[in-house]
Structures are given as C-alpha cells and as structure tokens.
Amino acid sequence: MTIVVRNASQPLARALKEMAKLDGASVSVEKDTDTYPKPLVKSLLKADKEIERARKRGTLKAYDSVDALFAEL
C-alpha cells in the first residue's frame, strides 16, 4: 500500500518514520523543491544569482516606488 502526505511538517515526517519502523515499512521523503518543475527552479536560482551579482557590482537598478519605475519605462 502507498500513502502520500503532502506539505508535511518535520515533526510529522519524523513521527511517520517511527510508526513505519513498528510495522517494518519504509518511508521516503522528498524535498519541497521537488514539487516545482526542475527547469523552473533552475531558472529562478540562476536569476537570483544574476541579481545578486548585479547588486554587488552596483549595476542593479532599484526603484523607491512603482511610480518611479513606470516613469522610467
């Protein structure tokens, strides 16, 4: 039998693992990032690195308000 529990907290995951031991069953846990498509996660992490590099170089353009952003567009 297979049981799927989504969005479980760490304490619940630990409790399920301990309960599975009592019955001789096994439990596998997947990280939260596995719920998103891998290409999406990869592109978001890449964009984050690019933004951080631009911020460190001082070339990242930041705005104080949305109105200032639209005024420049």
Descriptive labels:
3 helices; mainly alpha; 73 residues; 56% helix
Structure description:
This protein has 73 residues and is mainly alpha-helical. It contains three helices and no strands. The chain has helices spanning 10-23, 38-57, 66-72. 0% of the residues are buried.
In short:
This protein has 73 residues and is mostly helical. The protein is built from 3 helices and no strands.
Please count the helical segments. Answer: 3
Give me the strand/helix succession: HHH
The helicity comes to 55-70%
Work out the number of β strands. Answer: 0
The unreliable regions are none
N- and C-termini, Cα separation: 57 Å
Q: Let me know the average pLDDT.
A: 88
Assembly context of the chains: single chain
Shape, principal axes of CA atoms:
elongated
Q: What's the Cα radius of gyration?
A: 22 Å
Which structural class is indicated by helix and strand composition?
Answer: mainly alpha
Profile the largest sheet: none
Strand content: under 5%
